[in-house]
Write a structure and sequence with these properties.
This protein is mostly beta strands. It contains 1 helix and 35 strands. The protein is elongated, with a radius of gyration of 23 Å.
Length: 326
Amino acid sequence: VVAMPGVRTGTIVVRALAAQREVVLRGFEGSLVLEDNQGPIWVEDGTFLTIPERASRITRCAQVGLFACSFSGSDSLGGFCGADGGSVLTVSDSNLFAYGCQLTGMAGCPATLDDSGCLFFGCDTTAATAGASALTLVTSSAYLFGGTLQGGAGGAGLTYSGSCASCPATMPAAPDGSGIARDPGSQLTLLDVDVSSLDGTGPTTFLSGEPGTFRVSTPLAAGDPVTVSVTGPAGHEVFVLLGSSYEPAFQADASGVIVVPVASATLFLGSLPGSGSMTVELPLDLLAGREQAEALFLQALLRDPVGGTNTLGAPSALVQHRDPCR
């Protein structure tokens, strides 16, 4: 399912997906709720805004892939202060992998003090609130490649120098939210990820390499050119894996999660120039027969010609329609 640009869709819910089924979502805005899914879920180009009443969460899901998505926090009125802990995305009893995602926790609110009613009512104070974490893992596995996870800043404290005896001389600041917060039952694998802080315990693996970025524009009408954009280390050779089925599996020897069957077709695009970016038109036509619509899963593979190492890059989903709604 591909959303049209600029359309806000509220809360996106996928629940009770059977193991033999898959769901692909691209371009949605709102919040995200995935629960009790045995089949794999693909979410790409999503923009998700977490508010206290509508938090994004992934619960009891076998495989969830997030690609080029952003999650950020706001209060109900659209402001960016108001967190008291919490997280913009909570993953529980699930397996998550993400490429090139940006998660930003909402800031806590500063401490406040009002001594205008001191004589009759005493000092009116509100304590600072903690910033929200970007990602919280509860008994889950997460494989994160590229992207940024920034916890929200804790609310500022204050110092009081007025004459109201019932007012405190100081009010403390609240703690910042974590970039990633995890419990002992969670496992974490990271490659080229910018994390503001990593809190909690549990096994953590750091991989080497640079996944770069990869994107195919979609949806396309039958006959439209298929254009892909790739970034990565200059001089690396770029291959594209293509598959009609979504079967994610971690590949330690390629420092990433492959999203298509290992024996899928492969195209060589060339070597990245000194700028580290390239745009290529692919000779693909998914609607050669009578199909009304088809989807294809693509993923970059970057090869270092000097060291001979491979790094699985970001995936992207292509959808072609014979008669698209526009």
